[in-house]
Amino acid sequence: MESFLDDTFDVKAKHAPDEALEKWRKLCGVVKNPKRRFRFTANISKRSEAAAMRRTNQEKLRIAVLVSKAAFQFISSELDSPHPQKNENDYTVPPEVKAAGFDICADELGSIVEGHDVKKLRFHGGVNGIAQKLCTSTNDGLPKDVDALNRRQELFGINKFAESESKSFWVFVWEALHDMTLMILAVCAFVSLIVGIATEGWPKGAHDGLGIVASIMLVVFVTATSDYRQSLQFKDLDKEKKKISIQVTRNGFRQKMSIYELLPGDIVHLAIGDQVPADGLFVSGFSVLIDESSLTGESEPVMVGVETPFLLSGTKVQDGSCKMLITTVGMRTQWGKLMATLSEGGDDETPLQVKLNGVATIIGKIGLFFAVITFAVLVQGLVVRKWKDGSHVDWSAEEAMEMLEYFAIAVTIVVVAVPEGLPLAVTLSLAFAMKKMMNDKALVRHLAACETMGSATTICSDKTGTLTTNHMTVVKSCICMSVREVGNPSKFANMKSELHDSALKLLLQSIFNNTGGEVVMSKEGKREILGTPTEAAILEFGLSLGGDFQAEREAVKLVKLEPFNSTKKRMGAVVELPVEGGRLRAHSKGASEIVLASCEKVINSKGEVVALDDSSLKFLQATIDQFASEALRTLCLAYKEVQGGFSPNDLIPESGYTCIGIVGIKDPVRPGVKESVAVCHAAGIAVRMVTGDNINTAKAIARECGILTSDGVAIEGPVFREKSQAELLELIPKIQVMARSSPLDKHTLVKHLRTTFDDVVAVTGDGTNDAPALHEADIGLAMGIAGTEVAKESADVIILDDNFSTIVTVAKWGRSVYINIQKFVQFQLTVNVVALVVNFSSACMTGSAPLTAVQLLWVNMIMDTLGALALATEPPNNALMKRPPVGRKGHFITNVMWRNILGQSFYQFLIIWKLQASGKSMFELEGSDSDLVLNTIIFNSFVFCQVFNEISSREMESINVFKGMLNNYVFVMVLVATVAFQIIIIEFLGTFANTTHLTSHQWGACVLIGFIGMPIAAILKLVPV
């Protein structure tokens, strides 16, 4: 079966093509309830609509860009002309907009940005003119006037896209009623009611029909309740996925705000990896490169600046940083319309969902075949009996009812035999796991990631912020060739007094101008440092040396800023020095050995600029190695006087610098990381560190975490890149640390591990450039705190606390999901096999079925909805991380499962067959009701077999199945509810369920028969497979 499923019901966990998704749906053929079976699958038609919308956007934007270029050239020529034409624009401000105090409406703003309309923009006075008409300031943002903000929201809208309304509980009831077999049974019940009342009168004649109706309603309401709860869980998770914050200046203060609170007129600060939250205009910034592929499908990035200031919602900042003015929000943007369509497309179905749909389809066909045979055998028995009696021509109402009962039994066999609950159990287990993982600081973006993480064999982890705390401080420095320990006020004071004034001035100028961070005043009047932890540590270092951020910024004019780039591993700035006659100076900061390699001079202890000779170079390199061996992150700061002019379009020089100094930044290892790495090793999961840091720093941290062992290899990215294919095959399994790695190195390593070595790879990432590796990996794990929006969007799971221990928790939950579904499959297939064989064999041998339609519906609910609730929601335990991973080639339905299924099925079939054959003598049953009592005993024994088998299924290989059972309150509640309702069915609902009162002796025997299945299950577990 496994090989058949792999061939026909196999889809990728990530990026499955639509053809593969269509294929398995067709293979499923006729299903009992398509509304329910395909509820948690992708809506391919909606995805096609989204793709068509992207193509339309691409064409619109292409035309808009061409028109704007032509308009820009026309306007430029008009301005150069001695007789410029009068600018004609018939725009008038709508009265309601004017009354609210604004001079431009939402439609006009939308047409300017979406249409890239340079002419209209110029007519309205450019970006500053638009800001004035929106009653905002490009420096201070919107004023904090609640009434004014509310009026603005009423006129221009909110930054949210339309979402489909949540389904009510009654919608799920309606969908549950669409089960084909339940509808057929409902028709049977209706006919039974009519015939029964006509022949036997009310209420006696209505018992059978009402029994089936009551059973159908019970199944429907229990199913609908379970499905409704799942939908609420997914709704909560969707809300969490959409929580995106961004830096905004409002009322003169920089603050973090949800993108859904943005209004036209807001001033937003964008950096590399941010998603543009709404349509708007570029105010100021440097080197801004925008990736519009999410909106248009166009892969070529677009430069945005003063000449082309248009920023579109949903696009990504690929490079640079800027301030933007929000102009259009929500459903008025193309991104809003696209997202409304995409949200209806849904998540891809997971590999297990598809595989279990395959199992349900195969068993369903077998069940349908046996149901037809059973019906044929039962009808043949009735016809033969009537033929012998000579009454084959005359049919009474009782015989018609008997025929109807046979048909109902056949249909119910299909109900029980088709394990419709299998694929839905996957969804239930995943929804439960995702909700619990959210509490454990892991937000699952794609359902399949839960499954796949359970099979992970390798984790490629970042160092900074994942293995370390990401709380950075400068603890050592080598400024002007003098190594000093810093960290407290007295040491900073000594250092400041020892440094030459010119050297200190250069150092502070470099720190405060060549940075992606900022020092601002909070609403409470306190100093606040914004930026990455590394930037914050350097800025804090500058402030401790007596620097003034604002004063240093105002003393120079920033000509160009190139943000830190993980490929170049450095950042740069060019400043103009007005007080020094407009002289230009470039500053560089980044990976110590890379920046140092670009230096030709150095500032000595006297503050003099001297040539960087061999002895000085060796001293600085030794200092870098010393800092790195102490697990410090090292950065080098350098400057260069720029000759011959410089324009913002020029590249910042990469050589000829003067070294100012080196700083050593302490980033302590997170508590519990070493233990978590040890857990991974015990679980057969290899942990590799992939970092952009210095190799000595990386090795020191890796040893502290337990990642780098005596037989492991630590390698640098540039060395890794030079290796041949044959060398890589030998090297990659030994690599435990990769330092100074580029995003391409990470991508190459992940690709080789997945394809060449068949590993299931989980990769962490936080930067924009990590997106390809996150995309390539089986499970992409983005950092929730340090991660960019681009990284988060490419990831499958977001680690909300950036902690490696949380990644191990995700792996544990992944294994739990996989094993829980295996437990449920084992349990359900056992019930399927027994119910099918019992009713079929009994029909063939005795001409009647021991389990009626109502009883089979109850059994179906025990094994389907209640069974899934009990077994698919088992929380993880530590023992899960002491077994090897399943890996890529592992079979889902294992030999161990087949052993347990067949062994338990054989026992149950044997006991029920024995009861049918010798039950009356065993229980000394006599009289007219002996058949009813015996069938009740058979039904009761069968149900208790399932109850105890449910307990046995908690562990597929361990004999102790009671361990931790009381901790799973859902499991206990399901067991108690099943037993309680079984007692009610037997003792109080006999008229409807075709059961009768049993004595205490008979009850004891039924429970004992069920209980014996547990020691048999334990013995089976000793049988090697």
Automatic annotation (TrEMBL):
<keyword id="KW-0109">Calcium transport</keyword>
<comment type="similarity">
    <text>Belongs to the cation transport ATPase (P-type) (TC 3.A.3) family. Type IIB subfamily.</text>
</comment>
<keyword id="KW-0472">Membrane</keyword>
<keyword id="KW-1278">Translocase</keyword>
<dbReference type="Pfam" id="PF00690">
    <property type="entry name" value="Cation_ATPase_N"/>
</dbReference>
<dbReference type="InterPro" id="IPR023214">
    <property type="entry name" value="HAD_sf"/>
</dbReference>
<feature type="transmembrane region" description="Helical">
    <location>
        <begin position="176"/>
        <end position="198"/>
    </location>
</feature>
<dbReference type="InterPro" id="IPR024750">
    <property type="entry name" value="Ca_ATPase_N_dom"/>
</dbReference>
<keyword id="KW-0547">Nucleotide-binding</keyword>
<keyword id="KW-0460">Magnesium</keyword>
<dbReference type="InterPro" id="IPR006068">
    <property type="entry name" value="ATPase_P-typ_cation-transptr_C"/>
</dbReference>
<dbReference type="GO" id="GO:0005388">
    <property type="term" value="F:P-type calcium transporter activity"/>
</dbReference>
<dbReference type="InterPro" id="IPR023298">
    <property type="entry name" value="ATPase_P-typ_TM_dom_sf"/>
</dbReference>
<feature type="transmembrane region" description="Helical">
    <location>
        <begin position="1002"/>
        <end position="1023"/>
    </location>
</feature>
<feature type="domain" description="Cation-transporting P-type ATPase N-terminal">
    <location>
        <begin position="122"/>
        <end position="197"/>
    </location>
</feature>
<feature type="transmembrane region" description="Helical">
    <location>
        <begin position="403"/>
        <end position="433"/>
    </location>
</feature>
<feature type="transmembrane region" description="Helical">
    <location>
        <begin position="362"/>
        <end position="383"/>
    </location>
</feature>
<dbReference type="GO" id="GO:0005524">
    <property type="term" value="F:ATP binding"/>
</dbReference>
<dbReference type="InterPro" id="IPR004014">
    <property type="entry name" value="ATPase_P-typ_cation-transptr_N"/>
</dbReference>
<dbReference type="Pfam" id="PF12515">
    <property type="entry name" value="CaATP_NAI"/>
</dbReference>
<keyword id="KW-1133">Transmembrane helix</keyword>
<keyword id="KW-0813">Transport</keyword>
<dbReference type="Pfam" id="PF08282">
    <property type="entry name" value="Hydrolase_3"/>
</dbReference>
<keyword id="KW-0479">Metal-binding</keyword>
<dbReference type="Pfam" id="PF00122">
    <property type="entry name" value="E1-E2_ATPase"/>
</dbReference>
<dbReference type="InterPro" id="IPR059000">
    <property type="entry name" value="ATPase_P-type_domA"/>
</dbReference>
<dbReference type="GO" id="GO:0005886">
    <property type="term" value="C:plasma membrane"/>
</dbReference>
<feature type="transmembrane region" description="Helical">
    <location>
        <begin position="210"/>
        <end position="228"/>
    </location>
</feature>
<dbReference type="InterPro" id="IPR044492">
    <property type="entry name" value="P_typ_ATPase_HD_dom"/>
</dbReference>
<comment type="function">
    <text>Catalyzes the hydrolysis of ATP coupled with the transport of calcium.</text>
</comment>
<dbReference type="GO" id="GO:0046872">
    <property type="term" value="F:metal ion binding"/>
</dbReference>
<dbReference type="Pfam" id="PF13246">
    <property type="entry name" value="Cation_ATPase"/>
</dbReference>
<keyword id="KW-0067">ATP-binding</keyword>
<dbReference type="InterPro" id="IPR006408">
    <property type="entry name" value="P-type_ATPase_IIB"/>
</dbReference>
<dbReference type="InterPro" id="IPR036412">
    <property type="entry name" value="HAD-like_sf"/>
</dbReference>
<dbReference type="InterPro" id="IPR001757">
    <property type="entry name" value="P_typ_ATPase"/>
</dbReference>
<keyword id="KW-0812">Transmembrane</keyword>
<dbReference type="Pfam" id="PF00689">
    <property type="entry name" value="Cation_ATPase_C"/>
</dbReference>
<feature type="transmembrane region" description="Helical">
    <location>
        <begin position="969"/>
        <end position="990"/>
    </location>
</feature>
<keyword id="KW-0106">Calcium</keyword>
<dbReference type="GO" id="GO:0016887">
    <property type="term" value="F:ATP hydrolysis activity"/>
</dbReference>
<keyword id="KW-0112">Calmodulin-binding</keyword>
